Amino acid sequence: MSNKKLAGILGGCIAVVIAVVAIAALPPTPNFHINVIPEQPKEDQDPKYSIAGQHFVFLVTITDEGQEGQLPVRISATAPGAEVVIYFEDIFEGQVAEVVVIPAQASIGKTIKVTITGTQGSSTNKKVISFEVAEGEDDRQEYAEELLDRFVSWLATNHPELGITDDTVWNGTMVSPVWLVVSHYLFFSEEWELHIEWHIMMPPDDWAKIDLRHRFDELEPSYAFKISSVNATSEPVAIEVPETAWR
Amino acid sequence: MELTRSKMGLLAGISLLAVVFTVALTFATLQLPVILGNWLSNYFPDIHPIMEPERVAEFMAVARPVGYACLGIIAILIVTGLVTGKKKLSIFGSFAFFLPTFGYFFASMFFLAGLGILRVPFIPFWDPSVNLMNFGDISYLPYVALVYPFWLGGVDIRMAISWVAVGLGLFIFVLGTIAWFYGKAQKRKTVDFWIYRYSRHPQYLGFILWSYGVMLFAAQQPVPMGGSNPGASLPWLLTSLIIICIALAEENRMRKEDSEGYLQYTASAPFMFRIPKFVSTVITFPMRLLLKKDRPETGKELVATFAVYATLLILLSLPFVLLDFPPGIGWSDWPGYMPGILG
Fold this sequence. Notes:
By secondary structure, chain A is of the alpha+beta class. Helices cover 17% and strands 38% of the residues of chain A. Chain A is built from 2 helices and 15 strands. Chain B has helices spanning 5-40, 53-84, 87-98, 123-126, 141-152, 158-185, 202-220, 233-257, 259-268, 277-291, 299-322. Chain B is 63% helix and 0% strand. The N and C termini of chain B lie far apart (57 Å).
């Protein structure tokens, strides 16, 4: 065999292998979409705000256009200037992952850009959402916990089907720090997200409301209750459930 | 070779010796990596890639160039051996190419911890966006064909196949080695008795079978949460091809040294093992098309044969890559849970 022929064969083989690898390296079209709540505010909308140390919880779902029973989509996220914790990272359609972004003190006055990535096999899809980090501190926790206790005691007695008892452990975080007239707080148990809001006003307008979202399989709240006047010690009553989870 | 009573006794003794060696070597195949892995973890401790990404990056900055250099040296050894006919170089190179497969046997968060450090030469295969390791996945076809029907019947034979491949490979290798030494002690030009009646290259056949079993064991190793098992099919495929090329080169030498005797022998014993004629015709078709003859006779022809078959097998593996098969964490999870048993 001549050197020329050998070089031709080797060159041809190398070209075929490179072509094969290049075909395989082409990113496959993802057959799923990522949906994130809250969405990225449009240009004419106010940005979302957080304070340092707050848990900004993004709810992530997927719309899978592939075959049923395929692989789950693995959710990952990056957010320079913040810590990221992900709950329930492998999701199928109908399930909800939670991406918790906790801005660092050093990020005050800056924009946190959160990149949420879904990976299914070798295909990936991304969504980028940003929020501002405002100066401030959590001065609502004490009162929010006071209200939480009132609602939880009532729920434990009147809605045992929810599985919420006086012993249920809740972890809270302040949300919507720049809202002043109505204050908001989020509590999380293993099973539920409880959004509490209260009207900073004199009786009889000092109402407080909660809505409950079942974590990991619900995107919107499924229950809502209201105390019409906190100081008047009114009993909670069921109210119309909000259409979206508060963020 | 006529079997007298004393020779039958000798054969029985040798067979017993082969069984003992096989059991010992099979045990060593799976136990030595564990012992060596524990020892190496003193020098290459585990690093959590999420908790300590800086340490991983620091380690990879050193390991990556070492990996590329190692793979380069291995490639040079193999090609030089094939072209110059110095088979020891090629054998050493191909064994060095397969050795990192044992790195899969060590469970760790960081893929180069403990025995995983052996996988340094595989880094170039993992660096590109597409995992090059899967370009040898056509090798799993016999495994798939054997495992799947049993799996449908609720029987898991994945581990059993790996054990059988390792054990059978070693048994054939040991029988071949004993026969070869015995033949050489008798100053025979061509060893053509015992196991050599059924295979002209029992040692290479044994190595290929043994390494197939090791590759299957590697593919079945569990992976840490969030990881995947890339397997080691490409190194096995290429190593086996190199071994076959070395066997072909040896046959060329034997034809020169013992022309008449060896030709007579090749007429009665198959190259590796007996296969139907039409299968053999299909397998050798690319070579005959390329060389216009039945076998490569020079170093250059061997290199060209190797390149063409490697390319064809990579092409045949492409569907596995494009279909991302098996899905999820890879072969370690295939075919999944037994039907009827909840996962």
